[in-house]
Amino acid sequence: MAVELQRTDDSNDTKGFYNGLKEVWGPKKKGPVHLKSTDGMETFSDSKRVVTRWSEHFQELLNVPGDIDHEALDNIPQLITMACLDEVRAMDEMARAIAGLKDGKAPGGDGIPAEVWNHGGDNLFSRLHKLITNVWEVGYVPQAWKDVSFVTIYKKGDRTDCGNYSGVSLLSIAGKIFARILLNRLSTHITPEVVPETHVASEVTGAPWI
Fold first, then answer.
1. Rg for the chain, CA atoms, rounded
2. Tens digit of pLDDT for each residue in 129-145?
3. Which domain of life is it from (predicted)?
């Protein structure tokens, strides 16, 4: 096991290294979570209060008032209407979106991991395509595709301080597939019109440009 741990560390395989450590040391024992109140004057471990405190923390962290100049938005040139963007989603577009999923990622609230969609076969693909087509025609995205599950990862410092944790948002994989279909279509039809040619070339070659 020591040799395997060294190999994963040398190859920067963080996931493999962490899994190896868990195998050696066993799963970490979890006790009750203790958090401080917003004003820091009280510490509690009641599960309902802990959930409420996390909710307050992320509401404050993620809902920062924006400074938008609406007049500037009104001055943005409008592109012509592209009817092709309103066409029903094609099966090959969905297959392309699914092919971009990576295995081993945590699923959202529905608990369905990427592996299910990657290896589910034609029957599952057909059912998902039917659902996505219905969503597109009705114009309503299921709430479950928009809901986010937050996982907190401790960084350092006082464990009772919410500010000492990083939040990881987990979304429904099916919702991600739908969003990827839209992104791919927009990238194909809109990007060449609004993004400089040099940036488009970077996107095609795989270089980050956003």
1. 22
2. 999 999 988 889 999 99
3. Eukaryota
